[in-house]
Amino acid sequence: MPDPTxxxxxxxxxxxxxxxxxxxxxxxxxxxxxxxxxxxxxxxxTEPRAAVRAIATDHALEEGGGAGVPATGGRLASLxxxxxxxxxxxxxxxxxxARLT
Length: 101
Hints:
This protein has 2 helices and 6 strands; from the N terminus they run ββββαββα.
């Protein structure tokens, strides 16, 4: 019998994910955090062993050059309106994600 509970999609919906190239020529994927859209996650596609990075959207919008990016209450509506230059600035400011011990 199928499970009646709907499952979350395995990947973010269209418009919540972007691919861009950094200053060195590596390809990165930027995605909004699935549940709250209060963080942007960066994963390197060219070098999969590179650490995943993340930045809070409210910090990115205030400090990382988010001028002209539509947002409400520190949350991005979509990454489709964010320029590659802005994503590169956010990537440079985003620290690597690590376990808290």
